[in-house]
Specification:
The chain crosses the membrane at residues 21-44, 50-73, 100-121, 133-157, 178-196, 202-222. By secondary structure, the chain is mostly helical. The protein has 9 helices and no strands. Helices cover 86% and strands 0% of the residues.
Length: 255
């Protein structure tokens, strides 16, 4: 029997706390090698330590962090599409297995692209002082690339496409829907900022931050997907009506 009123509300809140925290913990556990390597980045005391730690963590990220993130997006997909009672462990690890190869390949390409953009940013900022303004263009491109990464994870768990199609469509979707992409980026940025804004709120990182970001990101993607589906259906209906009208005209001519 479904509980209502205050008790029903508290029960639903506790259910969502459980869903978000379990999914987030699974994501972290499957990303442990990357997390071990990212800590030295935070604790680095000089540039050499920082760069070496960043390089090592970037190398391992496509093989651990990216598949785990895709699996987390697979769980978020169930929630957004109304399947809130989907088994968490089974859904997470099924998506981890099914999307591992694509998320790994996509992760390698994204890491390479980010590395190129970061190097170009540093060159224009420090070496070419008369072109420093150009360096801010690379910051904007990196922001777009970060949003397209969220769309890539959403597409990996939602579509059956080849990896390069997913990558191309993720970028095109990000550029083609700038306002939705911007709103998604802002909402996710707020969640991350709150999580790291105070030592008292750092507990959000291991239990909630990742899963909340995944849910927001897939929700934003699904809004775009739904609109595109409606547009495609309307276009198909209009085409069918046009064909029917042409057929009627031909029948009238024959008669």
């Amino acid at each position: 029997m479904e509980m209502r009123g205050l008790m029903g509300g508290l029960y639903k809140i506790s259910e969502w706390i459980m869903r978000l925290s379990v999914t987030n913990v699974l994501w972290i556990l499957c990303s442990i090698p990357y997390i071990f390597l990212i800590f030295p980045v935070i604790m680095a005391q000089n540039t050499d330590q920082f760069l070496s730690s960043v390089v090592l963590s970037s190398i391992i990220a496509p093989f651990t962090l990216f598949p785990a993130t895709a699996a987390m997006f697979g769980v978020a997909r169930k929630w957004v599409m109304g399947e809130v009672d989907a088994p968490l462990l089974r859904t997470f690890f099924r998506n981890y297995k099914e999307s591992y190869l694509q998320s790994m390949i996509g992760g390698i390409l994204y890491v390479i692209l980010f590395a190129i953009l970061i190097v170009d940013f540093q060159v224009y900022l420090k070496e070419l002082e008369y072109l420093q303004l150009v360096s801010y263009l690379f910051i904007a491109i990196m922001a777009l690339l970060a949003v397209s990464l969220f769309n890539f994870f959403s597409m990996v768990v939602h579509y059956h496409m080849k990896t390069f199609q997913l990558l191309k469509n993720a970028v095109l979707l990000t550029i083609g829907r700038p306002f939705r992409s911007l709103s998604t980026a802002i909402m996710c940025g707020v969640v991350v900022y709150i999580s790291f804004s105070s030592p008292k709120l750092m507990f959000l990182v291991p239990f909630f931050t990742g899963s909340i970001v995944a849910a927001i990101s897939f929700w934003g993607f699904y809004q775009i997907y739904t609109k595109l589906q409606l547009q495609a259906e309307k276009a198909a209906e209009a085409e069918a009506e046009a064909e029917l009208m042409n057929l009627n005209e031909e029948v009238k001519k024959d008669s």
